[in-house]
Amino acid sequence: MPSTADWGRESSMDVSDSEDDFPQVEERRILDPVHDYVVFEPRVAAIIDTPQFQRLRYLKQLGTGYFVFPGASHNRFEHCLGKLSSAAKGHLSIVFAFTGVSHLARLMVENLRRRQPKLNVDDRDVLCVQIAGLVHDLGHGPFSHVFDGHFIPAVAPGTTWCHEEASELMFDSLLKENPHIQLETDWVEFIKDLVRGILNLSKHHEPPEKGFLFEIVANMQNGIDVDKFDYIRRDAINCGEQSRLATSRLINSCRVINGHICYDYKDHYNVWTLFDSRYSLHKRIYNHKTSKAIEYMVVDALIAAEPVLKIAERRYDPKKYLYLTDSVLDEIERSTDPALAGSRAILARLRRRDLYKLVESKVLPGMFRDLWKPHVTPESVAREAARFETDRGHESESLVLNASDIIVDWATLHCGMKDKDPMQLVRFYSKQSRNRSFVVRVDEGSFLLPNRWEELQLRVYTRDPKKQILAQTAFRALLSKLPDETGSSLKEITLENPFLYRRLRPIVHLCLSRRKSAPIITLCHPLWLATRVRL
Questions:
Q1: Could you tell me the domains of the chain?
Q2: What gap in Å lies between CA 459 and CA 430, rounded to an integer?
Q3: Is 163 a catalytic residue?
Q4: pLDDT tens column, 52-71
Q5: C-alpha to C-alpha distance for 356 and 349, rounded to whole angstroms
Q6: What's the CA gap between 71 and 464, in Å, rounded?
Q7: Nearest-angstrom CA–CA distance, 260 and 221
Q8: Three-state DSSP string of 400-434
Q9: Can you tell me the distance from the alpha carbon of 46 to that of 181, in angstroms, rounded to the nearest whole number?
Q10: In this predicted model, what pLDDT tens digit does every residue of 196-240 receive, in sequence order?
Q11: CA–CA distance from 136 to each of 46, 327, 445 (Å)?
């Protein structure tokens, strides 16, 4: 028990009498649920403590996925923190599982500096890579990719704007509005290029920037970067799954050979796991049918509110964009403006789970985009519905399918490098030859690999649930007339008995997928009459 004589002594909790005008930021340690404790040096912590970065707390990482996966409540804030720390893990004596992109970026670059001193990685390189991981997502809009992937193209057709442009805009604003964060002009240009993964603004710097550093935050060479290291693990965990990806092993095995980051041959399956995990997440979670339906409801609500709120214009003004987050839906719902009644009605349906309905879904080879996309449109489905009703004499004024009732969604799914085999773009080294890189051959890796690396997910939705069956009938009729990969047209499949059609549909589709010519086959079942199907 301290005596009263000790009360006047200086305490470790005493407030400093510093006269500095700017905040004194110390090293920051943050507990992350994915990567455990993450350490940020003072200059990086100063960037975290700005309104521009704190804005990321209010942007869901998975956008509308939170409406489907209740655990997916994580946001861009923690993703960016974790990406920062991945880059430096090898530099630390104690192996932490650091948080987010910035953390992972620091781990990787520090690991390269420690293992390969001849690369001449300096403190500037480490700090710039770390900051690039931190600020790479500053420009995301409401519901992340929904904003720049669906909303902006709808209200500003032909625009080439992307969230990376807004990230640069918000980064410039961050530096301007927070003068205590001092970065040289060439540093800022370098950081922006690291975010894009290309040498552009900093191409005239002397000495030249190190090319392999552009493969850490956003790797345009083969898609292996700390951004994926973080979101693959974080998204899987928050959606209730366990990630198979061993990010720490990849970070510790990376090595620069001939100017590019390579990996230990023993980790080739772990590299494949990264590509396979990316595809799996896109297939099952990011493109979940209900999440997609909600995406289109959110986009419709924002489009309806655009004439009043001028949402799209805010992306060019950092002061306005600072407050454009997922809360824009609350802004619409709180409003009593009659001009926003249509937008509020859509959001009211969303809150009641009265969602847009899936009509039909097809998985197609990548080549079908050019073959089918010009023909599968809301207008073509509506025309087929009108023809179908007229031919059968069931035309009804109370149930007419209009183009405005239909949504046609095209999603491209791949392992990270579109139609290319990503494993052929990754170079490895062996323990016996650590300075020579090579591509793993099939007989050295696995024969259990896809023969196609890209697929299309075609989905048709209807905004009016009452018209789901009508839209489905029209879409199926349209499909029977579309060209196949050879350019020939598929004949109409005629099954008079709807119950029989439902039972035989898998067999018919199997025949369609395997046919070489166009025969007439007979499908039989003991309980049904033989049915002739023209293929």
A1: 28-282 (1.10.3210.10), 356-415+450-490 (3.30.70), 492-535 (no CATH)
A2: 45
A3: yes
A4: 999 999 999 999 999 999 99
A5: 9
A6: 29
A7: 9
A8: CCCHHHEEEEEEEEECCCCCCCHHHHCCEECCCCC
A9: 7
A10: 999 999 999 999 999 999 999 999 999 999 999 999 999 999 999
A11: 16, 21, 34
Which residue among 79, 163, 282, 288 is the active-site one? 163
Which residues pair with residue 407 across a beta bridge?
A: 461
For 169, the token pair is 């805009």
CA angle at 95 for the pair 92 and 97, rounded to the nearest 5°: 115
Tens-place pLDDT, residues 110-158: 999 999 999 999 999 999 999 999 999 999 999 999 999 999 999 999 9
- Encoded tokens for 347: 């959001």
Assess contact for 51 and 72: CB atoms under 8 A.
no
Bridge partners, 358 (sequence order): 461
Burial of 494 (0-12, 13-18, 19+ CB in 10 A): exposed
Q: How far apart are CA 253 and CA 112, in angstroms?
A: 9
Q: What count of Cα atoms within 13 Å lies in the side-chain half-sphere of residue 460? A: 27
Q: How far is CA 256 from CA 109, 121, 275, 292, 402, in A?
A: 11, 12, 21, 40, 57
> From CA 178, how far away is CA 358, in angstroms rounded?
48
Strand partners, 528: 525
Pairing of strands 260-264, 428-429: parallel
| Distance (Å, whole) CA 143 – CA 447 | 39
DSSP secondary structure of 59-92? SBTTGGGGGT-TT---BHHHHHHHHHHTBTGGG-
Q: In sequence order, what are the residues at sequence separation of 6 or more whose Cβ sits closer than 8 angstroms to the Cβ of residue 97?
A: 32, 34, 35, 36, 248
Confidence of residue 28 (pLDDT cuts 50, 70, 90): confident
Ranked by mean pLDDT, which of 77-91, 248-262, 392-406 comes out on top?
A: 248-262
